[in-house]
Specification:
The chain is elongated and about 75 Å long. Strands 3-2-1-4-5-6 form a six-stranded parallel sheet, sandwiched between helices. Strands 11-10-9-12-13-14 form a six-stranded parallel sheet. The chain contains 18 helices and 14 strands. Helices cover about 45% and strands about 15% of the residues. Helix 5 runs parallel beside helix 6 and helix 11 runs antiparallel to helix 12.
């Protein structure tokens, strides 16, 4: 199949690479020439395990191409994926400018039947707006070219996006056009050879499914974070509680790990957008999700609060080591990352910090700018120099089994504030550390 993917961010680039991996002829469009240059030179503009090798392999095979030429992109693919960003607007709603601009670009140029696929995470009703935008452009041209609009939300986890696309647990296709459904089934057939994973719904149900999935996962995280805070006050161990409730098959173990709050490009944005959609389009207040958002905002300050309870509200003259900056492991994404709130809390109280992350250092320097109170280390141990304590924010594997003797020797005080519960409290304390985890 000939496929066009509009946008080369996480969703667009992963989708394009994986679709080319199974033999499709894929053209990825992006209006940012720097991104296209990086891709054509064999690099990728994001960090995602396994993605760069897949991109290079399929470019070499002639199945994956990149362009800034909109005319070429529209003419190329019968299936046109829209995978552009939908950043949060000031009021919390999803900004649909880029999605609708992509739709209009297709409508201005299409000359034969197209299946326009909303792959971006979009509010309920977006497919109708995309359909109208294309219809408007066709009317301006005085043509009646047939087309269909499909909702095909992505369920990719950053850090495991390639695996998620190649071995999906479900494929949601929202459509009412039989030809479009047939083409989408053919497109995804290589990814579900051992059993059927494709679920066909109406368009609006598909759009809501994506928001509902992320909202449910965010709810589990905030719920466990609140339980962890309660466990600390009551003298209980949240890890034992997690094992106890996770063993119930109705609950399960996924997304029950307490921590420093969720971040990233999806959960914060999608929870806000769903709350806004409910209020504006249905006149409903989503009380549970409003509480989820509030709980998460508060949780991002838990690590800073632990530091200030130990050292006092005035942290002038204090210096801290921070391990982990990305919002989760296996990505360099720092959007809405808990590390940003921690650093803001420390700096506001007068402290300085040295930070380390296995892959997000370049992104950190871009996000934090020329902040003179933040230093950048090249190794975890280098970050410990002159630090009063170590604060762990992201659960990278290389932090799981460090040299505790070195940590103790380098720190001014043998204190670890662990926002991800990486270590056994009894063992760490037996090594002479003061250990402040979450809910334990």
């Amino acid at each position: 199949m000939k496929i066009t993917v509009v946008g080369t961010g996480y969703v667009g680039l992963v989708s394009g690479a994986c679709l080319s991996e199974v033999g499709n002829d894929v053209l990825c469009l992006d209006l940012n020439p720097d991104k296209i240059r990086i891709l054509e030179e064999g690099g990728i503009p994001i960090y995602e395990p396994g993605l760069q090798d897949m991109v290079r392999r399929n470019v070499a095979a002639g199945r994956l191409h990149f362009t800034t030429d909109i005319d070429r992109a529209v003419q190329h693919g019968t299936i046109q994926f829209i995978a552009v960003g939908t950043p949060p607007d000031e009021d919390g709603s999803a900004d649909m400018r880029y999605v609708l601009a992509a739709a209009r670009s297709i409508g201005q140029r299409m000359t034969d039947y197209k299946v326009v696929v909303d792959k971006s995470t979009v509010p309920v009703g977006t497919a109708d707006r995309v359909h109208e935008a294309i219809a408007d452009e066709l009317q301006k041209r005085g043509v009646q070219t047939p087309y269909a609009v499909v909702s095909n939300p992505e369920f990719l986890k950053e850090g495991a996006a390639v695996e998620d696309f190649m071995r999906p647990d479900r494929i949601i296709v929202g459509a009412n056009d039989e030809q479009a459904i047939h083409l989408m089934r053919a497109l995804y057939a290589p990814f579900q050879r051992n059993r059927e994973r494709l679920i066909v719904t109406d368009v609006r149900s598909a759009e809501l499914t994506k928001y509902a999935a992320n909202a449910m996962l965010a709810t589990r995280i905030s719920f466990m974070n609140e339980l962890a805070n309660l466990a600390e006050k009551l003298g209980a161990d949240i890890e034992m509680v997690r094992q106890g409730i996770g063993s119930d098959p109705r609950i399960g173990y996924h997304f029950l790990y307490p921590g420093a709050g969720y971040g990233g490009s999806c959960f914060p944005k999608d929870v806000k957008a769903l709350i806004k959609t409910a209020a504006d389009d249905a006149g409903l207040e989503l009380k549970v999700l409003t509480a989820v958002e509030a709980a998460n905002d508060a949780q991002k300050h838990v690590l800073g609060d632990k530091v200030k309870r130990k050292f006092g509200a005035d942290l002038k003259g204090r210096h801290f080591a921070v391990w982990g900056l990305a919002f989760k492991p296996n990505t360099d994404d720092m959007r809405e990352a808990p590390s940003l709130e921690l650093l803001a809390d420390l700096l506001a109280a007068g402290a300085t910090a040295t930070v380390y992350d296995p892959v997000a250092m370049h992104e950190a320097q871009r996000v934090l700018g020329d902040e003179p109170r933040v230093r950048y280390a090249t190794t975890p141990n280098e970050a410990l120099d002159d630090a009063d304590a170590l604060v762990i924010v992201t659960e990278w594997k290389e932090f799981r089994s460090p040299d505790f003797d070195t940590i103790k020797a380098k720190l001014k005080q043998a204190l670890i504030v662990d926002g991800r519960n990486l270590y056994d409290p009894a063992w760490v304390r037996s090594q002479g550390f003061e250990y402040l985890p979450i809910g334990r």
